[in-house]
Amino acid sequence: MVSIRQIGRAIAPMLPSRLEWMLKGLYLKLYHRGYLPLTYAKAAKMDRAVQEEFGVDVVPPPHLRHRVCGTPDLRAYLEGGRNSVETIKTALTKHGVKLCDPSSVLDFGCGCGRLTLWWTRDFPHHAYFGLDVDPDAIAWDREHLWSGTFEVNGGVPPTEFNAETFGLIIGVSVFTHIDESLQTAWLKELRRLARPGAVVLATVHAEKLVEQLAPPWQREIWEKGFGFFRQDIMPKGFPSFYQAAFHTRAYVDSHWSRYFDVVDHVEMDFHDLIVMRKSEGVR
């Protein structure tokens, strides 16, 4: 069955530009003022039962969950966070990281604490810091997640943390949404924040997702190794630079190795987890 969005994409090139933008504006108003509030209200009705199932006392509201996992569905939010933490733990164990050792952990792009809930349950002795550009999410974290310290960061580095502060840095679903120059800037900043020998983890969109993109986008990604594209609709709360980025494995190995030793690619459902180390003695 053809969706309204598909019909819109088909007829948009045939419309005068002014009319096209008027229709897009109307669509966005209906989406944000009508569809999303109804969707959030429906999701909230299911929250209590899902919380009891997962044994979770407090959860962020639907609109914040939507920003971090693309849906307000609480089950998807909790399962996604738990599965990501388990994948990270497995990858760290594989590469000789002793998770029982106390460490300063940076959750780069923490959102409303999707990873925090599960990580701090398993490792309450870790000093856990969350960083995000979303002030609403950070405000919620500070009020409800007492097991960590949370700060708002600007869209570009540097952060206010001292150099070589963290033994572990985790960035889930950050490099999937920023352009190439901003990625370079943040890789340099994460290297500054990482201690010598620290492990840095970051996710990128899985290569298999490239096949689902429009043919011109596919060609650009395979030719350059990287592509950055504007998405049709983003939930409110995201900065304008936050769009969709895609990498090939060869690109990651070539470019990211300028800042860290790239030691592994771990396949997840829709992302690949890149495992990196800051070489001993590197400042």
Q: What's the short story on this structure?
A:
The protein is α/β, with parallel strands linked by helices and 283 residues long. The chain is 43% helix and 19% strand. The protein has a single domain, classed as Vaccinia Virus protein VP39 (Rossmann fold).
Protein architecture, described:
The protein has 283 residues and is an alpha/beta fold. The chain has helices spanning 4-11, 17-45, 47-54, 62-69, 74-94, 116-122, 135-144, 180-193, 215-224, 249-255, and strands at 104-108, 127-132, 149-152, 166-171, 194-205, 226-229, 244-247, 261-267, 271-277. The protein contains 10 helices and 9 strands. The strands form 2 sheets. It has a 7-stranded mixed sheet with strand order 3-2-1-4-5-9-8, with helices on both faces. Strands 6-7 form a two-stranded antiparallel sheet. α4 (62-69) crosses α5 (74-94).
Which features would summarize this protein structure in a list?
Rossmann fold; disordered N terminus; 9 strands; 283 residues; seven-stranded mixed β-sheet; alpha/beta
Which CATH first-tier class would you pick? Alpha Beta
Helix content: 40-55%
State the fourth-level CATH superfamily: Vaccinia Virus protein VP39
Q: Provide the residue-averaged pLDDT.
A: 88
Q: Structural class from helices and strands? A: alpha/beta
- Count of discrete structural domains: 1
- Silhouette: globular
Distance between the termini: 56 Å
Number of helices: 10
**Strand order within the widest beta sheet:** 3-2-1-4-5-9-8
CATH-defined topology: Rossmann fold
Low-confidence stretches: 1-8
The total beta strand count reads: 9
The appropriate CATH architecture is 3-Layer(aba) Sandwich
Elements, N to C (H/E): HHHHHEHEHEEHEHEEHEE
